[in-house]
Amino acid sequence: MLRESAVNHFVITGARVFDGEDLLGVVDVEVADGKIVSVAGRRPDGVELIDGTGATLLPGLFDAHTHTDAESLRQALTFGITTELDMLSMPERMIPLRRQVAESSDLADVRSPSIGLTPADGHPHQLRKGEGDPPWPTATRVDEIPAFVEARIAEGADYLKVLVEDGHVFGSSLPALAPELVAATVREGHDRDRMVLAHAMTIETADQVLDAGVDGFTHLFFDRPHTDELIEKIAAAGTFVVPTLTVIASITGEPAGDSLARDPRVAPKLTPAWLDNLSGAMATSPHENFGYALEALAALRRAGVDILAGTDAAHLGAPGMAHGASLHDELRLLVLGGFTPMEALRAATSVPARRFGLADRGRIKPGLRADLTLVAGDPTVTIGDTLSVQRVWRGGTQLSLAPAGGQVPAVPGTRLRAPVRSGP
């Protein structure tokens, strides 16, 4: 019998299911009231069936490093990214955005540290000219750190971020955050049950913030070849790494974004401005440094360090990236760096969910949010198939995959029977 008062109740049939950890094979996934009801269970009589034959059902994907807004969250969702982990935003924008996300089904969900700790005129001020930012709060003495941390938590910070950057990978010179301020932020953050994450793109700064006790790196280090000692220290500390190979490719002049912009599964979903942005590159560091990043990634993988997929997608004017699309290229680059496709998929699903304490998502399991992405093909074998997005659900509500510039209204997952294919 049809369940009484079932809201948004449907069963996805015929699809291979990757549950965030393992490939389950072809099994049914039942969704009702925004949650996963059963996996490989009995199919209720009379329920709406959604045919996933030839496709693979994934948990909604994470981008574990962005700088975002409403337009970007809407764009990300069309590419199957249901959660963005913002890594620095203005509270004047993020606070109302969080309210908007809570009331909407056509935006990816978001978490944020609010403002990161950086010196006056430190990174990323040089990249945000023209963004209209208000004056940034900062701290110059250890005794100012508690007030800085409390203010970020009052703004709704889910975690904290410190930025240790002297600018040379960007072809400039910038004031760098003092080590004692990093250590004080870690102490104060941990006292308040907040993780502290660090921007550190060089071997020297990575070692420094690791000694301070940070919980995660928001970038790989790539200024020179890694050392075995640093890799071993990261593994022993249990620190995770968000490599952001996407932005490192841009910084080192790799043509990754340009190739992605020409993919027929990408172009229809992006505006001309975003396609142009994706096609660009910063090219401020030597080309060979990209190889250093891949070598460090492979060493971290061998050491068993948790790797989270993230892109550093930001605003127009941060070339080489685009919200949503770039996460799929990040997965490709992880595989290029030695990951299996299954490992890359875990880096965009269960691993970020676990490391950020988001136990309600990142897996396809009964009781969890029905954040789901259906893609043509089998990305557990061919990672590029993640770009072949057919359907996206956020909290059990299906997104209508309209072309770029059009509206992308959310529609109930029970209304459509045949997969909606994106792109040609």
Automatic annotation (TrEMBL):
SUPFAM superfamilies: Composite domain of metallo-dependent hydrolases, Metallo-dependent hydrolases. Residues 122-132 have a biased composition (Basic and acidic residues). Residues 57-397 form the Amidohydrolase-related domain. It comes from the Bacteria. Pfam families: Amidohydro_1. Residues 105-138, 403-424 are annotated as: Disordered. Transmembrane segments: none annotated. This is Amidohydrolase family protein. It comes from Actinoallomurus oryzae.
